[in-house]
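Side project, low priority. Logging it here so it doesn't get lost.
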Amino acid sequence: MGHPLPSARAPRPGTGRTGDTRSRAEGSGRTGATRRTRGRARRDGQALDVAAPARKTAPAPTTTATKSAAASGKHAHGPLLVLDGDGTAYGVGGIMLNCPATTVPELVEWTLSDAGIGAERLHRHGRDSDPLVVLTEAAAVRLGLPARLEGAEARRGLRLPDDHPVVKQIGKAKWQLTKRGFGPWARVYRPAQGNQRLCVQLAIVSWDALDSRAWSDAGDLPAPELARVLGVYAERVLTPRGSTAVCGLELMTALRPPTRAAKDETGTWVSQANSGALIAAVDPAPPEAPAEHPVAQGWDRGFLDEEAYQWVRDPQLLDDAECLLDFAVGLDINTAFLAAAARLTVGLSGPEHVVRPQFDKKIPGSWLVDLSAIELDPRLPSPFTPSGQRPTGPAWYATPTVAYAEELGADVRPLEAFLRFDTGAYLDPWYDRLKAAYLATMADLGVGVGQGVVVHRPNLDETPDLIPFRAGPAQLAPCARRLRPPRPQRAVCELMSVMVSPERVALGV
């Protein structure tokens, strides 16, 4: 989960300081001072002055507008902007900025020097979020980008070819792209200058940056509404950086940075490992990995198979009133999967193979044990298989599952195990932030803790009201778009050595 940029410790851009603006002009390779043309910003009908970079040099720099952008804080205009085709950039709180940029390098320069966007760090040893500019289809075309990635570009992994004019413009202006190139989520950066970080994240909506599988229909929203939706997500979770799964991983790193600044024996500031954080990626144990994983090649002794139940209520149990309803909406009020992450002990090191170990519920890992002898109520599904069928012999189980079998009175005797002995409650801050975000979103829906929601069929000529126990899709959809909590996939288990099934640490939404 390391950052692809050359410097992971450099402070953030967009401070609005005169010195910062001058250093960017020098770092861009241009001679002379940078001329800025004044744009206009509007927030709730009030005009604000915003500076914008011009393409040519002029006798002297203008710094008044840059200072005004930072007057109300380091990130005066919020975490992100949504740029439309007419040059209007929409931010949180109804703000509108005039962006004169017509090329990607100009947009990056303007974002760093004058847009005043970004977000504060979530941990004192972390770094501020890079400014995010979301481009509508019209804005992408205005900057010289294709409206959609099709043909050869699409076949080459959703990225522009290296010989595309925009990629050449970026290189000519002495900016760089990460190894992922210019795709739906692109990072444009320069190596850090001293302690100044220079990086802008771009998201192109028409390139499916906001994939409907993760972001619902957010990509179809008009620019002002999209800025509001993403702004709420950035405020409650973090500034979007990709799919919701990517955001989940990034949130973990932002809340537990792998390194911190410390002084060595000579008094020099150096980078040191942050206690309780993940310093490097580790491989999963063979039974925990997908069959295609390199560590699983040649492994033939079974795999961990713990997934959420695929359970559907018997339609024959529906009453007449329920059959007349057009739809039903379920809200995970108790957030069972999220709650499982609270105080969950996970492994912070690689797995160690142990033969015939004594079971210990405090050690995260995978255990080969036979749970087929446990007698349960036949009317209920077995908690030890995804299908609900009774186990037929030894199988691999995560520590929480074996601990539950022990609670049921089973004589647990593991045959072998892959265990982690360096452990910690790594997910606690992740849980706390997502819990707060979820509760705030439920409050927006008018749903309190412990309440449920029943969806009634609305009349065709009336708009359903959103109140506790009564809601319609017209109200639920906009609120639900505000927060699509991240769901870590199996990769989280591999990367973090979290020895429980992904669903036990993911949000079930």
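Brief comment: Confidence is low (pLDDT under 50) at residues 1-72, 452-509.
Revisit when time allows.
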